[in-house]
Amino acid sequence: MNGMVKGQTGKGVFTIMEVNGGWGRLKSGAGWIWLGNPSYCTVQDTVAETPKTSSAKSIGEIAKEVIRGDWGNGQQHKQKLTAAGYDYSVIQKKVNRMLN
After folding, report:
1. Taking a C-beta distance cutoff of 8 angstroms, is the pair 83, 36 a contact?
2. Are 83 and 19 in contact (CB under 8 A)?
3. Same domain? 35 vs 3
4. Share of residues in the chain with pLDDT > 90 (%)
5. Same domain for 32 and 68?
6. What does the DSSP 8-state code read for residue 68?
7. What pTM was estimated for this model as a whole?
8. Alpha helices in the chain (DSSP H)
9. Which residue from 92, 68, 91, 88 is spatially nearest to 79, judged by alpha carbons?
10. Are residues 22 and 66 located together in one domain of the fold?
11. What is the chain's mean pLDDT, rounded?
């Protein structure tokens, strides 16, 4: 989120062609929209995340970070993990296994 804001989309339904790091590329070519804030963006259909490079952290590493509180608490960590391109349910299952 270090880039310059070049405009706003306004209310409406938009088609996302690609998802990367919590951002969705608009089919219109107008740019990218942040998908991580459910107060203004509701995702209705599943869009495959752009595959991560080998530098992506493992599920175990992310689970340890979640346990430490690095990703926030409650709904906040779910939103942050999803926005970062991680599958929340997979991470949460690993967290649960590590704590039991």
Report:
1. yes
2. no
3. yes
4. 12
5. no
6. H
7. 0.47
8. 59-68, 75-83, 88-99
9. 88
10. no
11. 77
